[in-house]
Amino acid sequence: MGRMRRAAVAAVGALALLSPAACGGADSGADQEVEVFTWWADGGEKAGLDGLVAAFDEQCDYSFVNGAVAGGAGSNAKQVLASRLQQGDAPDTFQAHAGAELSDYIAAGQIEDLSALYEEWGLTEALPPGLIDNLSVDGKVYSVPVNIHRSNVLWTNKSVLADAGVTAAPTTLADLFAALDTLKTAGINAPLAIGKDWSQLMLLEAVLISDLGPESFTGLWTGATDWNSPEVTQGLENYKRLLSYTNADRDTYDWTDAGKLLMDGKAGFFLMGDWAPSDFETKGFTDFDHIAFPGNGDTFQWLADSFVLPQGAKNPEGTKCWLKTVGSAEGQQSFNIKKGSIPARTDVTEADYPAYQQSAIQAWKTGTQVPSCAHGAACSQGAVEAANSAIGKFSSDQDLAGLQKAMSAAAALGKN
Amino acid sequence: MLTRVRRWGPGLLLISPSLLLLGVFVYGLIGWTIKVSMSDRHTAAESDGFVGLSNYVDLFTNDINGRFLHSLRNLLIFTVVFLLGTMLLGLLWAFLLERGVRAEGLFRTVYLFPMAVSFVASGVVWRWLMNSGQGDDAGGLNAIFGQLNLGFLQNPWWTDPEWGMVAMAVPAIWQLSGYVMALFLAGFRGIPAELREAAAVDGASTFQLYRRVLFPQLTPVALSALIIVGHMSMKMFDLIMSVSGAQWLTEVPAVYVWQTLLTSDYAKASAISVILLLLVALVIVPYLVQTMRTERRS
After folding, report:
1. B140–chain A Cβ distance below 8 A for any pair
2. Model pLDDT, residue A3
3. 3-state DSSP call for residue B100?
4. What value, to the nearest 5°, has the Cα angle with vertex A104 and ends A101 and A107?
5. What is the percent of chain A where pLDDT is above 70?
6. CA–CA gap between residue B115 and residue B130 (Å, rounded)
7. pLDDT-based confidence at B156, cuts 50/70/90?
8. Does residue B108 carry a pLDDT above 80?
9. Is A43 helix (H, G, I), strand (E, B) or coil?
10. Distance, CA of B31 to CA of A286 (rounded, Å)
11. Dist CA A337 CA A317 (whole Å)
12. What is the pLDDT of residues A315-364, one digit of tens each?
């Protein structure tokens, strides 16, 4: 009998171990809640989100639920999001870079077409046509951009340039090379500061805009422009030459480290998106100026955060109200003033913004819009990653033909 | 019949939870990974088209810039240097301690301590130490070399395109040499004193004692150390992520899996994972077989 009892105890023990927390995780399913999934968890981004929520509370009858996942510049959030989407547990809306980075979600049928709502809310008129072209996939739009950052901005250290005798801001690539040579003669060994992979990709893109012009440049990512054309080869050669003016240990630098080279006067120029000045100012550096990358003319290379309506959202009406707020003039203003970016809409009051943003708003209205690959506006996630890898390889071995071939293959990713 | 069930039934019942968990979460998921690696699931979209081994073939023949082969090459350099470094240093330290230095306990602790630090934490520190700036921009070890007038020792560390992975192995050697030392020391201590005495009686010199008597006894320990360090090396991820971040220069298969997974290319990520698993199995399975054999013999 003793043995029977032992068997019974064993059975109970086994069962107890097999039933781990089967309960829990049940959603309350309240209709009035809108879960907004972002990676804006702190700093200016959190402040911007709070601003947006304030506008949302005013315009809508729903309550906001913060689904932010912090860390990894969004990579953590993207992992969580991917698994939630697979399980059919989509948040009511989620943040994603506007443009080609959405192509995976679109192909997977995970987000809804918003074209009709664009018409209804007047976004078709409020957003610049260049942006809508860039955002459209087969004539349909799938996301509402909340902000715009500019990536083709060359930041300068005013004292360094003045001390070396560079008085006129360079407006062409030739000017830039001349200025870099002048700085080098003046004892600045690496006059162009740069960080690792993606910031090098930004530089390559800026050079290609100069050498190809905005239209052919955009075509590089849509397949309309041939990566093996002589113009592209010329652009890549210019890029290689520019790299020779940069800090040799670039692959060890984050963008903020590279920015420090500019702040410390070890470099005269620094190509970075227009989120850089808030970092400069936080660190007490004000001696900087900015120009569009030489040769880019009035081309405005943009990247944007946007929100979408996922397939199977629990509260689609609430999501639509969130998206309406995101697209509205009030929503964009309360978000962007705090985050340091500019509204995607063109009908905004510039005077409400700080000086740099005013000039950016002006440039956004009047310029030609081209998307950025490095920040997912022109490239799918797979393409961005492959391009970064190719750029990293080129940084170490300077193999131009290899770069051309690899970039061509990377740009074609996610386009089947 | 019933009596037999009674004999092994309770035992089986007791281990069944762990059997089930292992079966589902280890072997089941390995099977699932293999299945995904043979599908064409290259985006977030559901798709289970069977493509056989073509993902594997693509990795070797059709990867942009030969990226996978590059990551294998990096891993090979890293593993060779890591193994050689830890084995030599570990053996040397164990030998010194075994010769009876003073304050052995202190040295043992000092050498073993780095192993208590996580790769992530030590990686961050080594990222500073192995700063690739030279001359006026030098930082970390390069700056120390500069101040000691040993400027010729300054080097680009892991940013060297050809041999950067050798530098990457330095922190790993620093962390695990002490562990290998402890293994060897235990091996030395496990050798019966009679053997030494017998050798002394036979008139063996100290060199002969080590060469002919003691070292041969350490072979099983050396094998264990090789396996343990070797399989850690194959899966190396956290150290590289915290020293260099994910980038071309220092990419190894484990980092490549991560990068691929972040872009939702599940099929490719699974294929790399399976190859990684095979690589580790190549090291571990013969070891397990051998251990089982010796256990059965004893």
Report:
1. no
2. 53
3. coil
4. 135
5. 91
6. 19
7. confident
8. yes
9. helix
10. 58
11. 27
12. 889 999 999 999 998 899 889 888 888 999 888 888 888 888 888 998 98
Put simply, whether B259 touches A (Cβ < 8 Å) is yes
Same fold flag, A33-148+303-359 and A150-301+374-411: yes
- Residue A4, pLDDT score: 52
DSSP three-state, residue A307: strand
Angle between helices B253-262 and B67-98 in degrees, nearest 10: 140
Mean pLDDT of A219-231: 91
CATH class of this structure's domain A150-301+374-411: alpha beta
| C-alpha A126: how far from chain center | 21
Pick the CATH number of A33-148+303-359 from 1.10.630.10, 3.40.190.10, 3.30.1490.20, 3.90.1150.10: 3.40.190.10
Residue A90, Ramachandran bin (φ over 0: left; ψ between -120 and 50: alpha; else beta): beta
Band (A229; pLDDT cuts 50, 70, 90): very high
pLDDT of residue A276: 87
Q: Which of A110, A381, A402 sits opposite B65 (nearest CB)?
A: A402
* Euclidean distance between CA atoms A237 and A177, whole angstroms: 13
Rounded CA-CA distance A52/A333 in Å is 9
* ipTM exceeding 0.90, yes/no: no
Quick count: other Cβ atoms within 10 Å of Cβ A293? 24
CA angle B278, B281, B285 (to 5 degrees): 150
Contact status, residue A329 vs residue A343, Cβ threshold 8 Å: yes
Residues of A in contact with B70 (CB under 8 A): 393
Side chain identity at residue A174, one-letter code: A
B242 touches chain A (CB under 8 A): no
Instruction: Please name the member of B131, B248, B259 whose beta carbon is closest to the beta carbon of A393.
Output: B248
Q: Are A293 and A270 in contact (CB under 8 A)?
A: no
Domains, chain B, ranges and CATH?
47-297 (1.10.3720.10)
C-beta neighbour count of B237 within 10 angstroms: 15
Q: What is the mean pLDDT of chain A?
A: 86
pLDDT of residue B145: 87
Who's near A289: CB < 8 A, 6+ residues apart?
A155, A156, A158, A169
Helix (H) or strand (E) run with residue A156 in it = strand A153-157
Residue A193 scores a pLDDT above 60: yes
Rounded average pLDDT over B5-28: 90
The pLDDT tens digits for A261-282 are: 999 999 999 999 988 888 888 8
A396 contacts in B (CB within 8 Å)?
A: 159, 161, 248-249
